[in-house]
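Side project, low priority. Logging it here so it doesn't get lost.
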Amino acid sequence: MSEALILVADDHQEIRDFLEEVLTKLGGFQVKSVGDGLSALSLVQELKPDLVITDQQMPNLKGLELIRRVRQNYPFLPVILITGESSEKLAIEAVRVGATDYLTKPFDPDQLLRVIDNCLENAEKLMGFVRETAQVLIAHDPTPEQDIKIEPTPSETRESSGMSELDEVLRIAVDTAVRLTEAEEGSILLLDEETGELYMRASKNFDDDFARAFRVQVNDSLAGQAISTGETVRIDEGTPQKIKTSYLVHSLCYVPLCVHDRAIGVLGVDNRTPGKRVTEQDIAILTTMADYAALAIENAQLLLQSEQERVQLETILTEIENGVIVVDHAQRLLLINQTAMDGLGVEGNCLGLSAGEVFKDPKLLSLMNADEDQTKREELELSDGRVFSAQRTPIEGLGQAIVTQDITHLKELDRIKSDFVTTVSHDLRSPLTAILGYIELVERAGPVNELQKEFINRVQSSVQQISSLISDLLDLGRIEAGLDTTKEMIEISLLAKEAMVAIEVQPTNLKSILWGRLIRAWAKSLEIQSVCDR
């Protein structure tokens, strides 16, 4: 198979170069290589390679997990695990998740090529049985239906699994099973999780009314036995078996449909005519078709779940008031919701374009070009007067997200607050100016005694303190910061005297007397200490 396409996944560039050279020059294969597990999983779906070679230790997705995910959708795709860890435990785990073969580094080119040839040969043999059986059937059936392609290949299975109509896929599976086994009737019964009953999802040669009404309990039926045990149930005796008191069969076989080791239904065929038996070859055919049907059901469920999640995400992104922008590491636009498009004036389908082609705001582009390991914020002032707050968040393995929020109303509230503070401060300064002016005129009006002078000085000091507070009020930056970090040296004895004076002018009570005595004693001790220091 010199034309076979091999996908190589290894995080070391030198290993990828070595494998590419060996596989292309010595093996004659086509090769595509990537450096991480998630990229490999994406390329498996896109390229549909004939074989995958994966390292165990890789970023984003390790080798064993990559094999497990590949096996869910591509059960016949051969996958070889290569690793530097020579561990029996790892080898067993690799086999359990579905690895076709296992190589320990270092290995020579001839050994690698032998393993690859063996894996490709076995994969071809795996599908040969179904093809040969189908050809034999066609040779014995000259009806026009023989032109229908009934031999399912892995690529055809992947295509059918992606069909939007699951019922059509299951109908084809039942038709094929009945045709290949030469049975008289066939059906796919699926488990209803809510009622615990099996219902007929697809059928061949059953009356439509019977198929729609068919319901049987899991714990009281042969089909339920196949569900419970996870094993094939075959009835092939001389005495006809009564099925759900509805019809008699002379031979019957149920094969479980398993998804992640859990039976979700059965594929069955039966014969009402005496003399027809269910052979081992028939069971092999049914098992193969059951695997295809289970894969189709699982893919349909995943598609439904993915579509539901997509609709939910789309609804969230559409309804939220914040704009959301996601770009990859190359600054290509991956996602933008309607709010961001309306706010930033973006029109049309722009996904896949570079950020420089879509956005013209220099601050937004500068935000996107910030260092990857830091979160940054910017305020974007639009031409229509609106103001947006933009926050950038790096997303590992994807790129970065920009969330924008219209803060125009907040900026307006901030302006109103500033105007209010300015107005109030002005209105407070005006009476203070008058008070200071009249205090100065008191001494000019006539002589004052020492006690009056003391009162005048206290009034002037209090007015100065209020003026300082008003100045602080005008300094919005210090208010929003929460604290004034400006510091200056001050004599603590003076601070104590001012506190003592403030208490003396208050109405006399026991509390003020006690505080006054305490502060006097403290001030006196500070004066004594000051003299000693000198």
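Brief comment: Residues 136-164, 528-534 have pLDDT under 50 and may be disordered.
Revisit when time allows.
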